[in-house]
């Protein structure tokens, strides 16, 4: 892959293709793009990143205080055949893309479309972005987007999140995971589709949106669909106090074959 550690901005132009393949043991990580150094930033358009790894697979990892703008129609594919996989690993800073497509496949541990670290991230997915996350039987956490710290923000319109897989016992499959202080605006006509194929006795939880205390989410015409077998199946699960979930008009929930 590509590693940048210059503390400055780089421009990859339009249509750049990056392929990264590794057969290193499962404890190693392979990156499509790895930004390091405070403030290292990147601009690109119609970027295509493909990562195939026996170990951890990361499509794109940002640096602290980086500014990333991937223009429109960027596609990031991250596949691990022996470990975890993450499409975008976002540290404090900003990330922007329109009509972004993430395809993430993992077999063990964590399989995630977007995951944040250390809070104060600003993610703008524009309109018509799609996140596809598929986990294998060893995955204990299959999530479209998960925030880990207060101050994380997401803005999107017509966003589609598909999260599915086998998942291991005592695990979870979620579309969105919001911690205290997260702020999310899904605009209009976003969709979250969660599917599982596990035994109900496995204690697996499948949820469209999981929100902890002080998390805030707004959306209009949001469609959440949860299907397949699981121990617990929920469209929205809220935990703690002072959370604000406003789904506006025209939102819908469908739970099929769960439980």
Question: Can you give a write-up of this model?
Answer:
By secondary structure, the chain is mainly beta. Helices cover 0% and strands 65% of the residues. The chain has a 16-stranded parallel beta sheet that branches.
Main sheet characteristics: 16 strands, parallel
Question: What would you call the structural class?
Answer: mainly beta
Provide mean pLDDT, rounded.
91
**Secondary-structure element order, N to C:** EEEEEEEEEEEEEEEEEEEEEEEEE
Oligomer: single chain
Instruction: Tell me the helix content.
Output: under 10%
The outline comes out as globular
Q: Which keywords apply here?
A:
nine-stranded parallel beta sheet, 259 residues, mainly beta, single chain, 0% helix
Quick rundown:
The protein has 259 residues and is mainly β. It has strands at residues 2-4, 9-14, 17-22, 29-35, 41-45, 48-53, 56-61, 66-72, 75-80, 85-90, 93-98, 101-116, 121-127, 130-146, 153-157, 160-165, 172-178, 183-188, 191-197, 205-211, 216-220, 223-229, 232-238, 244-246, 252-256.
Topology (elements, then pairings):
Layout: E1 2-4, E2 9-14, E3 17-22, E4 29-35, E5 41-45, E6 48-53, E7 56-61, E8 66-72, E9 75-80, E10 85-90, E11 93-98, E12 101-116, E13 121-127, E14 130-146, E15 153-157, E16 160-165, E17 172-178, E18 183-188, E19 191-197, E20 205-211, E21 216-220, E22 223-229, E23 232-238, E24 244-246, E25 252-256
Parallel strand pairs: 1-4, 2-5, 3-6, 4-7, 5-8, 6-9, 7-10, 8-11, 9-12, 10-12, 11-13, 12-14, 13-15, 14-16, 14-17, 15-18, 16-19, 17-20, 18-21, 19-22, 20-23, 21-24, 22-25
């Amino acid at each position: 892959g590509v590693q940048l550690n210059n503390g400055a901005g780089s421009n990859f132009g339009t249509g750049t293709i990056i392929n990264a393949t590794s057969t290193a043991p499962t404890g190693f990580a392979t990156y499509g793009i790895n930004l390091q150094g405070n403030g290292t930033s990147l601009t690109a358009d119609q970027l295509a990143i493909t990562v195939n790894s026996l170990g951890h697979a990361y499509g794109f990892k940002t640096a602290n205080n980086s500014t990333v703008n991937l223009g429109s129609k960027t596609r990031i594919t991250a596949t691990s055949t022996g470990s975890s996989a993450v499409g975008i690993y976002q540290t404090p800073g900003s990330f922007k893309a329109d009509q972004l497509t993430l395809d993430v496949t993992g077999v063990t541990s964590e399989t995630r479309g977007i995951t944040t670290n250390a809070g104060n991230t600003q993610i703008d997915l524009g309109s018509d972005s799609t996140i596809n996350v598929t986990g294998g039987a060893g995955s204990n956490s299959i999530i479209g987007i998960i925030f880990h710290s207060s101050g994380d923000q997401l803005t999107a319109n017509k966003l589609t999140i598909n999260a599915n897989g086998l998942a291991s016992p005592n695990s979870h499959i979620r579309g969105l995971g919001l911690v205290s202080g997260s702020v999310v605006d899904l605009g209009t006509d976003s969709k979250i589709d969660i599917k599982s194929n596990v035994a109900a006795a496995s204690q697996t939880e499948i949820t469209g949106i999981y929100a902890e205390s002080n998390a805030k989410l707004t959306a209009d015409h949001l469609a959440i669909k949860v299907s397949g077998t699981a121990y617990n199946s929920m469209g929205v699960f809220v935990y703690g106090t002072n959370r604000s979930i406003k789904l506006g008009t025209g939102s819908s929930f469908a739970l099929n074959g769960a439980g």
